[in-house]
Amino acid sequence: MDNYIVSARKYRPSTFRSVVGQKSLTTTLKNAIQSNKLAHAYLFCGPRGVGKTSCARIFAKTINCLNPTADGEACNECESCKAFNEQRSYNIHELDAASNNSVDDIRALIDQVRIPPPIGKYKVFIIDEVHMLSSAAFNAFLKTLEEPPHHALFILATTEKHKVLPTILSRCQIYDFSRISIADMVEHLEYVSSCEGVTAEPEALNVIAQKADGGMRDALSIFDQVVSFTNGNITYQAVIDNLNVLDYEYYFRLTDAMLSGNVRSAILILNDILGKGFDGQNIITGLASHFRDLLVCKDEATLILFEVGASIRERYKEMAKRCSDGLLFKAIELANTCDLNYRASRNKRLLLELTLIQLCQLSSAGQPADDKKKGLIEPIASNGPGQAPAQPGQAVATQTYTVQSAPPLQRPVQSPQEMTGATAIPQAPPASTPKRVARPPQFGTSIKEIGVEHPKAQATAQAATVVQEIQSPFSQEALVHYWDAYASAIDKKVYLKNTMINCKPALQDNYCFEVCVHNPGQQDELTNNCIDILSYLRVQLKNTRIQMRVRIDETNQKHLAYTSTEKYEHLLNINPVLAKLKDEFNLTLD
Ligand SMILES: [Zn+2]
């Protein structure tokens, strides 16, 4: 183990040709050297581990090489090249600006700039992480950077270009290094494993490349880690175990469940994955990427975007044939919505399960786009073949609650909040009736139309399937009373509390009430919490058919806080303690 060198160092490129994944950039640099059109300052920027410092070193070596090759590479044989390769060249100075960022450090460097190189033509100064220089150091550096002696050449490297002063940027030729593609990385890893006498499955290397997220250095250090873990026999299974990566297999199984509308299977698979200790958010983002991969591998034109290893490609293509474009669009959207809501969700597992349920409904619903327009979702029980038959004695809610904002602010509502309506009461009406309810051809999108359709729809379904349902009548006053009671019991969700205090429900036909809110934020707040609110109201008012509809009041929603008083009112609305603060300190608004 004495002379063990990590792969990232051992396989550090020594010529432009051996730099991985930056071909166009290295070609440009080579051409500049060959045509002898060198700038005196370069800025290399890009994410970490993509070859910025390596390229800077190769560049320094090449412009000093005494016998450059015909294609513009360093010979690696002349005295200068040898000195570079053995790290004893006086023609290269590296400064790590992350730890040497003071004016004194820059002054010491400027002193060095004046002395011409003992051998070769150029003295190259590489300043790594240049954005870390203090502003005084930047300013001390400007003059030298603008008019350096002809033998001096600066290469600045940074991961954060936006933090470099514009005055510095304008004095440099800028090269943007890109993330290294998965294919390039896999190719290089294959090369390294063949040099190291390591056997590796291509799929395993693909996982390593994905995990490295565009950085070759990271990929090589993960590679080293896996090599020592597997004793030089890198298999896909060993890699996913070691790196805690979720197996593709799970995503394929989830997609299968989605296509067959098998909710139970999907939820069991989720349970299996969670049981292995994977984070829910990773699962859903992975699933979204999986759908995205399925989508891009459907078409030759987009196949270049497909970054999954060749061996599993056929399997993706096979599965992609079974999914329509519309289904995949919708699936990606659902997974993405779940990802966005994940952090805010209190019951994260439920959110994941709801998303899976919605995904499973996509294929059996047939026309997801229509459902979205109407903001309605079919009862789960009428969908897949693997569904439970209707249970006698179960409460029936034929119409899930709908969320509509007044046109033109209609928002897509195929999101978890909708599902909450469907799952709040377990329901199992026969397949035929609700289908008619959910999708009559003349069914429009406006509130008015839905309002008109409601009684008919419910009556139809009711006649066919009424089993046991509690339907005690209640008054507007009682509704507001329990609404307020719920609001006053909230202690943590201040925004929800204030929304409920400010926006009162208005009872309409068929035990459906409408809440008129002022902005989309309030609408989201109510819809995200509707499962809790409705459960409470249904119990208190002894009516299982209560539905909520949230509408944005058009006259109010454009009213934004412009004046100080309005802003104060708005903040007060969020945090009532402000009033006390204002009084105690005698603050005024102007
Ligand atoms: Zn040379």
UniProtKB/TrEMBL annotation:
Coiled coil: none annotated. The keyword Nucleotidyltransferase applies. GO terms for molecular function: DNA-directed DNA polymerase activity. Residues 38-181 form the AAA+ ATPase domain. It comes from the Bacteria. Residues 408-440 are annotated as: Disordered. It catalyses: DNA(n) + a 2'-deoxyribonucleoside 5'-triphosphate = DNA(n+1) + diphosphate. Keywords: ATP-binding, DNA replication, DNA-directed DNA polymerase, Metal-binding, Nucleotide-binding, Nucleotidyltransferase, Transferase, Zinc. Its EC number is 2.7.7.7. It holds the Pfam family DNA_pol3_gamma3. Belongs to the DnaX/STICHEL family. DNA polymerase III contains a core (composed of alpha, epsilon and theta chains) that associates with a tau subunit. This core dimerizes to form the POLIII' complex. PolIII' associates with the gamma complex (composed of gamma, delta, delta', psi and chi chains) and with the beta chain to form the complete DNA polymerase III complex. This is DNA polymerase III subunit gamma/tau.
